[in-house]
Amino acid sequence: MTHVPLLLSGGRLKHSKSVQHIQRIEREIALPDLPDALDGLRITHLTDLHIGSVVTPDRLAGIVEITNAFEGDMIAVTGDFVDLSLNVLDDVVDAMSQLSAPLGVFFVPGNHDYLDDGPRLIRAFQDAGLRMLMNESEPFELHGCKVVISGIDYPHKKADIRPFLRAALKQAPRRDACDLRVLLSHHPSAFDAAAKRRIDLTLAGHTHGGQVVLSNKKGKKGSIGIASLAHRYPRGLFQRGHSYLYVNSGVGTFFPLRVNCPAEVACLTLKSKPVDSDIRHVRATSHP
C-alpha cells in the first residue's frame, strides 16, 4: 500500500511538503493525581518513523535533532522504526542511540517492526544498550517521588494487551505506592486496559492521525479521517477518569501524502493543576 502511490507518482510524492514537514507540538497535560514535586516534567514523544523508501535514512539526523531539541526530561519512542525491511536497521539503531534525555530514552516495538524480522530488530536495539521495554517496567525516584515507566510489546491480537500489561506491572510498585505511572504502547487500544489499572498517562502511535483528515478544524473534534474510521482513539488527547492517552500522529507515513494531519514530534509537559486543553472524554467500555 505504501509503495503504490509512490510508484504512480514516479517517486515525486515522497518529496512533497506534506511528507517532509514535521510539526513540533508542545502541550500541557494536567494529571489529577500528579504531585506538585513532579509539576513541569517534560516527556518528548516520537513514534512511527517508518524508515524505508518514503521516509529515507538520510532524514534520521533531522528527526533526532528535532527530538533532542525539546530538551525533555525523558524521551518515549513508541514503535514502527522501520517500514517494510530491516535493510535500514543499522541506520535506525545508530540514530536512536543519539537520542538523549536526563531521565532516559525508552522504546517499544510496533507492528511494522515485525514485518521482516522482529526478534532481530529487538536484539539490535538491546545489543546497542537501548532500553526496549518488552512487557517491562522501569521504576525510579525523582524529587522524592516514585515514577514508573512501563512498556508493552506490540499486541498482534487484542487479547494480548491485558497479559502484556499485567506482566509489565508485576515489575512495578503497587498503584498506591506510585506517584506517576506512564505506559508506552504502539497501539492506542492499550488505553482501555491502562485506565482500568489506573495508569496516569499512556503514549501511543500507530494511527498516523489518519494522514488524510477532512475537517475545517485541522483534525479536531468532529473531523473525519482514515484513523477515525478504523480506531477509537485516532489522534490527540483522550481522558477516561483520571487516566489520559496521547495519540501521536508520528513522523512516517502509510502512503506518501498527508492532508490536515502533519507529521509530528510532541513534547508533553505534565502539570499538577488544571490547564486549558482540547481533551476528548471517553466512557468506560468492556474492551480489554
Characterization of the model:
By secondary structure, the protein is of the alpha/beta class. The protein has a single domain (3-281), classed as Purple Acid Phosphatase, chain A, domain 2 (4-Layer Sandwich), CATH 3.60.21.10. Helix content is 20%, strand content 25%. The protein contains 8 helices and 15 strands. The chain has helices at 3-8, 17-20, 60-69, 89-96, 118-127, 161-169, 190-196, 226-230; strands at residues 22-30, 42-46, 74-77, 105-107, 131-132, 136-142, 145-151, 180-184, 201-204, 213-214, 224-225, 236-240, 243-247, 263-271, 279-281. Strands 6-7-8-9-13-12-15 form a 7-stranded mixed β-sheet. Strands 1-14-2-3-4-5 form a 6-stranded mixed β-sheet. The chain has a two-stranded antiparallel sheet with strand order 10-11. 45% of the residues are buried.
What secondary-structure arrangement, pairings included, does this model have?
Elements: H1 3-8, H2 17-20, E1 22-30, E2 42-46, H3 60-69, E3 74-77, H4 89-96, E4 105-107, H5 118-127, E5 131-132, E6 136-142, E7 145-151, H6 161-169, E8 180-184, H7 190-196, E9 201-204, E10 213-214, E11 224-225, H8 226-230, E12 236-240, E13 243-247, E14 263-271, E15 279-281
Parallel strand pairs: 1-14, 2-3, 3-4, 4-5, 7-8, 8-9, 9-13, 12-15
Antiparallel strand pairs: 2-14, 6-7, 10-11, 12-13
